Amino acid sequence: MGENIQNLDGLAVSLNKMIDHIQVILPNSKILITGTFWKNVPVNDIFVQVANQRHLPFVKLSQLDLNENISSIGSTVLSVDGLPYKITNQAVAGHPGDQGMLKMAEAIFQGIQAMMQQTISR
Fold it and tell me: Residue ranges of the chain with pLDDT lower than 70?
């Protein structure tokens, strides 16, 4: 979430509305906010601000925006079905590859574990 935001006007309000909606629909849910993979300081600052105001955990991901985590033309990656395919589209090639996705998943999973540990400790 937040990767393609061009206009910051209303972002905090919209994020708060989304959180409110989730809490109405799923009152016992646990919510964790993640930052963007690509370095986007203005968007991430708003996400951190909302997380802090609402006492929600925030997982930073922008430290993963490194060449080693980005795919490239000719790279073989796994599809959602687990099948390998070669990247031939430049727009797709600029996105996280399998290693980047794994590192994002690990960071988010650690955030979930920490959040659940705090819930148990209370």
Answer: 119-122
